[in-house]
Write a sequence for this structure.
């Protein structure tokens, strides 16, 4: 899939705004500043995305997934290495809570944190593109990248994945993860249309 | 607003700069609007030209918006600076307030832009 | 077949079902106004439906303003997103009360917000689940699960420290805080290498049982025995280290190992000394006989050769004395000894052999420290230490002899030199008998082992501190003597029987003594044929009637049939009956029997003395004069003289 430079720039800015909102939401949850890196966008095939997540090792991951529908439909996944997800949960629940209790609540808390981050992203996009994106409740998955993809992403050779690495850091703890938006070809076409429409709306006066 | 207000837009995203420019146009401002893709080139431009206002993205590669705004406040006190960001965390809002830089949320609403510019 | 289906429920019926749900249901329209409020909500919020309908959520619950729920509602209505909010993550959601209204207990809740179509527009559905019971159940389970664990961990006297894969500390029990002088809060996140430098590399975590040095409170190091348990929680590997301070145990083990080695050596040397005494006895007695019997042109020459043999035998006895004192077989005669005087005397004695290159300084603490010890042995010990100091300083140097009070109940006598010092290896073995670094012929290797044996036998201790090039400090710790016991100056020098000139036991003197004996019937019991022979020879010139046997049974058999005036028996007899037991049995047969027991030692152990009854102890090797003396005394004991 080829995106024009402008489209690429637009999606990056969409994600930038979205991830910024996620950082705001996160910082409210932990009541601490959350620093974040600038998201880096890549468009990958399923296998490439798998490789990027797994990094060649079958290390355990935690993912929170939501399906969304609107002008473009697909799945959104927030993926963390399991170790970092626990750090994130620990940071959110407060570090005074004993580790064993954090572990008891980890899955539930992770689903909610994922929900907050993914919703910030989706609402950020909907907001900028002035459209409606409906999404399901979050589901938490654990396993290797392969296992998680198997459960969340149908094997569709044409599907393209908007793959974004995000790095949050809370209380000096680095919590790097990935936001994965899976879109089929049809959805990508629709996303492009939405973006192009938006760009056109901005350019309306530029010429005159 | 005086004629030919000079405004500098600083954002790594062209789309974001376009959005700002569109909003400024919709405001009907008679403005000379210039653009810079990062904080460093913005500071370079400011060395040679005078601007009434700078609209600065917060999240940029290289120097971030808050640091650049601090420099501008110190070196070009006559130039108004606002941070444009979706990252309105309490900590960032507080920091911006300390250096006296208003925060305009992204995506930009015309109302917020108008408030900032009329204060110039 | 199947019953016909009931018609689909009417909207009213459905609404009625909604009312019956055991969860809160709130439906908002696109303008965020409440359009449905079920009776669960009325019950738990105290807000009746008629008030709720048409209001905004934040009007009813001002605390929800700007919170997560408000945000979720906005995103559901504006964008179409769904959200979950749980009590775990959100400190407070809606202020709902328990229905059973026991006090002011709030409902622990989880809330689901999702978009719904309301007519043509978009609204949102809020479901509120009461999690109070679940929370309570979880809490109980957790308490149960943790109770036993904590009971053990909190009370344990061993340190429990949990670290993650990277070796960062995740938790520790109270005793760890004490041992390592580190509060749990301060320890969290620190690398374990801070406490256990051997685990600086996290790759070394997980070994089942290791021993290493640990850095405890205030930097004090200790020996730690570490057992590691590894477990997985939340996909992460953790290691719980059970850290036990084994410093004391290691010291005890080392001490035991050393003392076992010493004990083994002691037994060995004791045995050797005993055998050696028998040989010396034979040599010495025969040489003495040679002195007495020598006639003819070469008599003087022979006598002087024999005297040399006697002298050599006496030197041999000094050696066996040393061996025996190491083996702690030499009974001691502790008495109060003034260290100041004793040191002065000994140093005076030693100075000629130390040489002019050695500068001896004496420091004696005020208060006149005195110890309870065998004076002669103590002098020997100090002499030994001075000689060692000399040998450590071939080019001369300074020796500091210092007497101090303390530690509590003890006095310490220190001899420090500025000599070559010892390597740790040498230091480790310095107190073993026969271990010497001196060249052949220069030392017996017994000096320090004797000092060590003497110190221990006296209830004290002996310690060596040394580093190559930094000299050696020998500390002899002995129990203090109670102050009221005034040692008399007359006792200050104990007569040493060996120090007396062996040649003095000349034939003339012996003959004079012998003249006082009537001929006796003497029974000799000695297993060593050579010793037996030489004793019989010594007795031979007295006109006695002598019977010699080799063990106690033979002696008793003799005594059943024949009378004897005197029994001369070795203490150590073979075949299970000692000279001590023999003397008791012999007295049963013949109550007025005089007894002389020959022994390698000066005295009998207290139990043996009781068993033996009145008996003279004759120390091997002995001279004829000694023999006569003791026989005479033994006869007096039983009133035969």
């Amino acid at each position: 899939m080829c995106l024009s430079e402008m489209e690429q720039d637009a999606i990056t800015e969409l994600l930038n705004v979205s991830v910024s909102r996620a950082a705001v939401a996160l910082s409210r949850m932990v009541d601490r500043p959350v620093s974040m890196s600038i998201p880096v966008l890549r468009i990958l095939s399923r296998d490439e995305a798998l490789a990027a997540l797994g990094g060649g090792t079958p290390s355990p991951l935690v993912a929170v997934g939501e399906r969304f529908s609107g002008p473009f439909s697909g799945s959104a996944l927030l993926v963390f290495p399991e170790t970092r997800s626990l750090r994130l949960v620990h940071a959110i629940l407060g570090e005074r809570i004993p580790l064993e209790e954090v572990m008891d609540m980890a899955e539930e808390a992770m689903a909610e944190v994922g929900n907050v981050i993914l919703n910030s992203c989706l609402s950020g996009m909907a907001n900028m593109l002035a459209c409606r994106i409906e999404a399901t409740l979050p589901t938490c998955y654990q396993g290797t990248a392969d296992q998680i993809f198997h459960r969340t992403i149908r094997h569709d050779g044409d599907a393209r994945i908007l793959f974004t690495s995000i790095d949050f850091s809370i209380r000096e703890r680095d919590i790097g993860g990935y936001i994965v938006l899976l879109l089929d070809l049809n959805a990508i076409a629709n996303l492009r249309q939405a973006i192009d429409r938006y760009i056109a709306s901005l350019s309306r006066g530029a010429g005159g | 607003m005086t004629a030919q207000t000079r405004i500098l837009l600083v954002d790594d995203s062209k789309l974001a700069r376009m959005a700002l420019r569109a909003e400024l146009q919709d405001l009907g401002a008679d403005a000379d609007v210039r653009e810079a893709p990062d904080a460093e080139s913005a500071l370079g431009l400011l060395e040679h030209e005078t601007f009434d206002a700078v609209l600065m993205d917060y999240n940029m590669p290289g120097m971030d918006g808050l640091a650049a705004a601090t420099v501008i406040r110190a070196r070009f006190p006559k130039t108004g600076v606002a941070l444009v960001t979706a990252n309105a965390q309490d900590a960032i809002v507080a920091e911006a307030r300390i250096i006296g830089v208003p925060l305009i949320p992204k995506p930009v609403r015309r109302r917020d832009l108008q408030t900032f510019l009329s204060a110039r | 077949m199947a019953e016909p289906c009931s018609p689909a429920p009417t909207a009213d019926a459905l609404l009625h079902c909604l009312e019956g749900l055991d969860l809160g249901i709130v439906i908002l329209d696109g303008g965020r106004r409440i359009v449905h409020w079920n009776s669960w909500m009325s019950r738990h919020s105290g807000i009746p439906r008629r008030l709720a309908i048409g209001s905004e959520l934040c009007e009813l619950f001002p605390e929800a303003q700007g919170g997560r729920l408000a945000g979720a509602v906005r995103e559901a209505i504006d964008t179409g997103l769904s959200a979950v909010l749980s009590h775990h993550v959100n400190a407070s959601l809606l202020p709902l009360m328990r229905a059973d209204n026991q006090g002011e207990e709030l409902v622990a809740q989880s809330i689901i917000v999702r978009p719904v179509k309301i007519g043509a527009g978009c609204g949102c559905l809020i479901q509120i689940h009461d999690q109070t019971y679940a929370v309570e159940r979880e809490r109980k389970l957790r308490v149960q699960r943790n109770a036993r664990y904590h009971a053990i961990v909190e009370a344990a006297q061993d340190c429990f420290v949990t670290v993650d894969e990277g070796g960062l500390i995740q938790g520790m029990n109270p005793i760890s805080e004490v041992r390592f002088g580190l509060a749990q809060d301060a320890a969290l996140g620190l690398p374990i290498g801070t406490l256990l430098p051997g685990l600086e590399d996290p790759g070394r975590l997980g070994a089942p049982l290791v021993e290493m040095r640990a850095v405890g409170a205030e930097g004090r190091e200790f020996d730690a025995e570490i057992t590691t348990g590894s477990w997985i929680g939340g996909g992460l590997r953790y290691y719980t280290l059970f850290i036990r301070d084994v410093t004391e145990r290691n010291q005890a083990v080392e001490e035991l190992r050393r003392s076992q080695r010493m004990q083994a050596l002691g037994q060995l040397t004791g045995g050797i000394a005993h055998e050696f005494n028998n040989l010396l006895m034979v040599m010495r007695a025969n040489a003495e006989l040679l002195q007495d019997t020598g006639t003819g042109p070469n008599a003087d020459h022979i006598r002087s050769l024999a005297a040399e043999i006697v002298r050599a035998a006496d030197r041999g006895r000094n050696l066996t004395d040393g061996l025996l004192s190491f083996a702690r077989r030499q009974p001691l005669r502790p008495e109060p000894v003034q260290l100041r005087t004793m040191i002065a005397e000994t140093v005076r004695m030693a100075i000629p052999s130390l040489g002019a290159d050695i500068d001896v300084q004496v420091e004696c603490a005020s208060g006149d420290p005195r110890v309870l010890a065998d004076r002669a042995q103590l002098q020997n010990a100090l002499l030994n230490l001075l000689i060692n100091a000399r040998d450590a300083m071939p080019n001369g140097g300074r020796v500091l002899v210092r007497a101090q009070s303390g530690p509590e109940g003890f006095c310490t006598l220190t001899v420090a030199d500025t000599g070559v010092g010892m390597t740790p290896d040498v230091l480790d073995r310095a107190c073993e008998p026969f271990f010497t670094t001196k060249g052949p012929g220069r030392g017996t290797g017994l000096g320090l082992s004797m000092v060590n044996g003497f110190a221990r036998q006296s209830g004290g201790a002996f310690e060596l501190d040394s580093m190559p090039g930094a000299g050696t400090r020998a500390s002899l710790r002995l129990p203090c003597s109670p102050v009221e016991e005034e040692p008399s100056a007359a006792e200050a020098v104990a007569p040493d029987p060996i120090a007396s000139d062996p040649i003095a036991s000349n034939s003339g003197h012996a003959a004079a003594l012998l003249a006082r004996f009537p001929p006796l019937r003497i029974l000799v019991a000695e297993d060593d044929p050579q010793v037996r022979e030489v004793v019989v020879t010594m007795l031979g010139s007295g006109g006695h009637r002598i019977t010699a046997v080799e063990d106690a049974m033979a002696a008793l058999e003799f005594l059943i049939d024949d009378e004897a005036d005197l029994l001369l028996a070795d203490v150590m007899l073979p075949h299970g009956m000692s000279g001590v037991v023999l003397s008791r049995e012999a007295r049963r047969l013949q109550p007025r029997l005089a007894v002389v027991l020959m022994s390698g030692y000066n005295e009998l152990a207290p139990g043996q003395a009781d068993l033996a009854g009145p008996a003279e102890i004759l120390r091997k090797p002995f001279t004829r004069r000694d023999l006569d003396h003791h026989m005479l005394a033994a006869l007096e004991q039983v009133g035969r003289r």
Notes: The two ends of chain B are 8 Å apart (CA to CA). Chains B and C do not touch (no CB pair under 8 Å). Residues 5-118 of chain B form a domain with the Rossmann fold fold (CATH 3.40.50.2300).
